[in-house]
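Quick one:
INPUT:
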């Protein structure tokens, strides 16, 4: 008899100093800066929720972690469970997997960066989760300027050939967004990665370990997916403009934990109504009020 797959536990990394967004980040976390009508971190959070992740560890700096606790609480109002942990200094994305080792336990892990916004149909993500097995999975999004990102090269069969971090002469135009799937035991794997010249445990170096053993897969995100790394002022503006345009023209709400929790069956309609009623008057509440009128 087939056994049901163990659900992924989520790690939402919202650390760093946010220097590329200075002075917006003098007094707050980069991931709490607004992207149009809601905090930046709402967008990766709802991506994880749409992937079926309901247990999430939020990792941030000691100074900013209380802000995330105040924003999210224990997650119960969205049918989630949150835990929190500190990353004392920016020692690399892969260190988050070590910090969350006790939290992830024997479960597979979805790691997402708190400044990444992904919009579109998430069939690609559900396919990757279903096929993950004992492999690590990275994602690939076609970009015009791959020198700004980690870059993956792969063959016609989808086999990963090379991984490079911000190469001056990229071997492809497929960038690797800040979204990763890992099998159980990834924390122990991350401990084997030597810090780079800048003193960080690089996520690309971790992924290369899986690549060298033939345990790394790549999942293309497809042309219907929009991806923003909102860590610069220009990308932040572009992401906000995108969200505003989609919401205004299509009457949708993007990146709303209240809506996604209801759509995914994590909460009941009565809980949605109560949570929206508790919000102060705002554009965000107006959008959710319209949603309540439409849903059964």
């Amino acid at each position: 008899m087939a056994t049901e797959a163990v659900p992924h536990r989520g790690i939402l990394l919202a650390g760093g100093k946010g220097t590329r967004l200075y002075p917006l980040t003098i007094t707050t976390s980069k991931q709490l800066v607004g992207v149009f009508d809601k905090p930046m971190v709402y967008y990766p959070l709802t991506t994880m929720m749409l992937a079926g992740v309901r247990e999430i560890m939020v990792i941030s700096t000691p100074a900013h972690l209380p802000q995330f606790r105040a924003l999210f609480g224990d997650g119960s109002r969205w049918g989630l469970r949150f835990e929190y942990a500190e990353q004392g200094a920016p020692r690399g994305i892969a260190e988050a997997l070590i910090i969350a080792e006790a939290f992830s336990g024997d479960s597979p892990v979805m790691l997402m960066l708190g400044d990444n916004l992904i919009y579109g149909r998430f069939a690609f993500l559900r396919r990757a989760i279903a096929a993950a097995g004992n492999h690590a999975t990275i994602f690939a999004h076609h970009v015009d300027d791959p020198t700004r990102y980690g870059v993956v090269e792969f063959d016609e069969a989808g086999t990963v050939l090379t991984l490079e971090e911000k190469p001056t002469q990229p071997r492809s135009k497929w960038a690797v967004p800040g979204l990763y799937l890992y099998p159980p035991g990834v924390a122990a794997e991350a401990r084997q990665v030597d810090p780079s010249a800048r003193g960080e445990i690089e996520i690309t170096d971790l992924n290369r370990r899986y690549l060298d053993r033939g345990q790394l897969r790549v999942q293309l995100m497809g042309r219907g997916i929009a991806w923003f790394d909102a860590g610069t002022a220009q990308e932040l503006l572009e992401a906000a403009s995108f969200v505003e345009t989609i919401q205004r023209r299509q009457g949708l709400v993007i990146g709303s934990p209240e809506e996604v929790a209801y759509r995914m069956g994590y909460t009941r309609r009565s809980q949605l109504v109560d949570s929206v009623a508790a919000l102060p008057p705002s554009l965000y509440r107006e959008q959710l009020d319209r949603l309540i009128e439409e849903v059964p």
